[in-house]
Amino acid sequence: MIYEALQIISEQLDNYLSSQGLSNLVKLENIALLDSSSENAANVNGKVVLTLLNLEEDSTQKNLPNFKVRNGVTEYKNPPVHLNLFLLISANCDTYDKSLRCISKTIQFFQGKKVFTSTNTVYNRTNVAFDVVDQFRFNLELYTLSLEQLNYVWGTLGGRQLPSVIYKIQLIEIEQDIKLATSGVITHIGGDLNDINQ
Fold it and tell me: 156 lies in which domain range?
């Protein structure tokens, strides 16, 4: 679901920037390719690049029981993993002022739409990866780093700093459909209360 969430965000942002006169700019790619000698470095030239910086497990959701009742049978599974993703959006446009416009419009877009669900989001369902996507919900919030942390991030990515913004995407759920156990559903309790007194 990591790729799917980032691809959905990429498509949504690209559609918005296109509607603002900044068409065909958004690319889901590693911005560290920019200063590399890789042949893929050209993929990030003149683009607004979405790069996954980090992910963390949301430990508050970790200890919830995970079972479902289907057709009179209780199915037990391991709880799903809930992740927070840290997404770096960098503007590597042809000119500096265009890069600044793209970052400004990006912030404007996510200010207007912070919650993405399967009902409020139109995305390209013909992509093979979306065969497994049924229901989803994730939230985006602006994530601010200190100047020292930002310097460390860009140093790790290659040293050349671009106009950028970081968003925290909350609660991406990953679950494998493996049952640990099954049992019947308890429908009634038998016995007699008089037995307790004896």
Answer: 2-185
Sheet strand arrangement including 164-174: 26-28, 47-57, 81-92, 164-174, 137-143, 115-117
Q: What share of the chain is helix, strand, coil (3-state, %, to 5)?
A: 35, 30, 35
Residue 151 lies in a domain: yes
* CB-based contact 162:91 (threshold 8 Å): yes
pLDDT score of 96: 94
> What is the number of domains present in the chain?
1
In a domain, 6, yes or no: yes
Q: Which helix (H) or strand (E) holds 111?
A: helix 96-112
Asked if residue 197 is part of any domain, the answer here is no
In this prediction, residue 195 carries a pLDDT of 55
| Helix, coil or strand: residue 113 | coil
Yes or no: say if 167 and 191 are a contact pair by the CB < 8 Å rule: no
Q: Which residue is associated with the tokens 């037990």?
A: 76
Residues 6 or more apart whose Cβ sits within 8 Å of residue 164: 88, 89, 90, 91, 103
- What parts of the chain have a pLDDT lower than 50? none
Residue 142 belongs to a domain: yes
Nearest-angstrom CA–CA distance, 57 and 84: 6
Phi, psi of 117 (to 5 degrees): -130, 170
Q: How far is residue 88's CA from residue 168's CA, in Å, rounded to a whole number?
A: 9
